[in-house]
Amino acid sequence: GDVTLQEKILNLIKQAGKTGFKAGQFPPFASSDHASFVSAGIPAVTFYSGNDTQIHLPGDALANIDRASIETMLAAGELAINGLIPVAR
Q: Which of 23, 72, 28 lies closest to 45 in space, CA to CA?
């Protein structure tokens, strides 16, 4: 993903007191959803917990999703959106 965007998002997450997040890069030609945006020159990042041992396998089912990981990723996404696109409330 976009390194500058990654840094901004990580800073927002850290400012909110959240820990355990780190930046990383998918290997070239990775087929993550954000890759098409990056290829088109649009800054993009993805949130990944690393707990997807069953992704694209028979065990890749809603019942096997790690709820704590989903909640963590949603919280990070919310912090990123609210920090990058301030909206009056």
A: 23
Residue 16, domain CATH: 1.10.150.900
Cα→Cα distances 16→26, 41, 49, 57, 79, Å: 26, 29, 19, 35, 8
State pLDDT tens for residues 3-29.
788 788 888 888 877 777 777 777 767
User: Does the pTM exceed 0.70?
Assistant: no
31 domain residue, yes or no: yes
Report the C-alpha gap between 41 and 33 in whole angstroms: 14
Examine residue 77 and state whether it is found in any structural domain, yes or no: yes
